[in-house]
Amino acid sequence: MGFLNKLVRHKPVEMLQAEAGKRGDFRRVLGLWQLTAIGIGGIIGVGVFVLAGQQAALNAGPAVVLSFLIAGIASAAAALCYAEFAGLIPVTGSAYTYGYAVLGELAAWLIGWDLLLEYALIVAVVAIGWSGYVQSALTSMGIHLPVWAQGAMGTGEGHVFNVIAAAVTLGVSALLTFRTEWGARFNTLVVTIKVAAVALVIGVGVFYVNPANWVPFIPERITGADGVSHFGFSGVATAAAVVFFAVFGYDTLTTAAEESKNPQRDLPRAVLLSLGISMAMYLAVSLVLTGIAHYDTLNTDAPVSDAFKGLGLHWVALTVSVSAVFGLISVLFAFMLGASRIWYALARDGLIPGWFAHVHPRYGTPHRPTIALGVFTALVAGSTPIQKVAELVNIGVLSAFIVICSSVMILRKRKPDLPRAFRTPLVPLVPLIGIGFSIWLLSELPAITWKVFLIWVSLGMVIYLGYGMRNSKLEKL
Q: Which of 33, 279, 299, 323 is the most core-located residue (most Cβ within 10 A)?
């Protein structure tokens, strides 16, 4: 086989479907609602508790609800494409595996390699944010960590390492190392608490809405002394690019395809259910939050809690803060699970050492990549300021969206008669919407993100050409 042919060799869909029916690597223990909880856990987090208020104050005003709607439409286009592939190829690995089936080995490797970094960095970002909530709660109880343990170097005088951020990533890693259903049950409980808190915000807040706070709905565009413009419809678009970070996460549940009891039925449903439920909550919270407090008061670290404090409802504020602490753990769970399953899939296909493709004989989990990710994310979360890590996320996920949406169109053309448990509607329009939004959002990312991305891709190419190409399982067929 020639060099170029090796780059585009792929696993036929029929082969993957046949393997899915025979594989016994994992224990099939996840039902529809556990999968949906993983998706909701990955989506609902800082978007509800932080970004909705901050982006209302900085860029969109009450029209932040439109920002979430725009981001949601873009994400929904990709979700519909994910749903088709999830029912068609119920194999662990998500976008990596789907790309392998349609675009070939090199494209699959690059998207898997990128997602591995992206998911790990999202875990680190959320862990650092979680640490801030926990330290604030501890301080209010009169408990203070040693100064050196409060944050990474550069985040404050005397700071050396963020101990709590590192500890929570190691804890989630340990949870995922044991039986998947144990972690899934814990995650479902945490997601239930989080959803209940959002319902409380909506249910109580709706009685305190002052419609005057929604006027003007889209504030007039202004330019600050620093030359940066805010508000107007372009501000709504800017906010949409920011909150897009908060409306993906459903893709993590597709990485657990081989742990699903009925993947071809449940995975597409879970993808669409998790995004639909999450978007309904985002839109409702955005309207309630900007209705109970004027948008220019919401640029705080905890805008939802602060808005209820302003109403004198301190018990609601406390409930929201406690729920945010618990709720962010489900985000860590979802993305750690996704990263470990992609790492396992890469190893099982021979593109990285097969040592990582071993399932624990007792617990039935990919323990080696899970533990390795726990250590890596602990080091990043403990030693890096949150701003530095946050700048690097999104690019891999957006690239995956482009791959998935493109692959749906290609496979519809190449193999239109394949039986599909779910069919993306309005092809090619829906995939093209997903691709267009993803390209636009990629263009909005800062230069440092692109620099790190190119360095990571270059390292990935070295590993693939030096190891993966020669050791791929397809090389031996």
A: 323
Amino acid residing at 154: G
CA distances from 36 to 78, 254, 366, 420 (A): 17, 10, 21, 20
Cβ contact 74:434 at 8 Å = yes
Taking residue 454's Cβ as centre, other Cβ atoms within 10 Å add up to 11
Amino acid residing at 178: F
Q: What is the pTM of this model?
A: 0.85
Q: CA angle 281-282-284, nearest 5°?
A: 65
Q: Which two tokens stand for residue 242?
A: 């920011």
Q: Hunting for tokens 């404090």 — which residue is that?
A: 309
432 — phi, psi (to 5°)? -65, -35
Buried b / exposed e along 408-422 (16+ C-beta atoms within 10 A): bbebbeeeeeeebbb
| 349 contact partners, CB below 8 Å, separation of at least 6 | 100, 472, 473, 474
* Residue 444 Cα distances to 33, 164, 391, 416, angstroms: 35, 32, 12, 35
DSSP secondary structure string for all residues of 78-131 = HHHHHHHHHHH---TTTHHHHHHHHT-HHHHHHHHHHHHHHHHHHHHHHHHHHH
CA 98 to CA 342: how far, in whole Å? 12
DSSP characters over 447-474: HHHHHHHHHHHHHHHHHIIIIIHHH-GG
- Per DSSP, the chain holds a count of helices (H) and strands (E) of 21, 2
Decide: helix, strand or coil at residue 69.
helix
Q: Mapping DSSP to helix (H, G, I), strand (E, B) and coil, where does residue 329 land?
A: helix
Listed residue (401, 403, 395) closest to 450, CA to CA: 395
Give the pLDDT confidence of 86-129 residue by residue, as tens digits: 888 888 778 888 888 888 899 999 999 998 988 898 898 888 87
Q: Alpha-carbon distance 206 to 209, whole Å?
A: 5
**Cα dihedral value 71, 73, 74, 76, nearest 10:** 120
Beta strands in 124-237 (DSSP E): 222-223, 229-230
Distance of CA 131 to the CA centre of its chain: 19
Mean pLDDT value across residues 412-427: 89
For 223, the 3-state DSSP assignment is strand
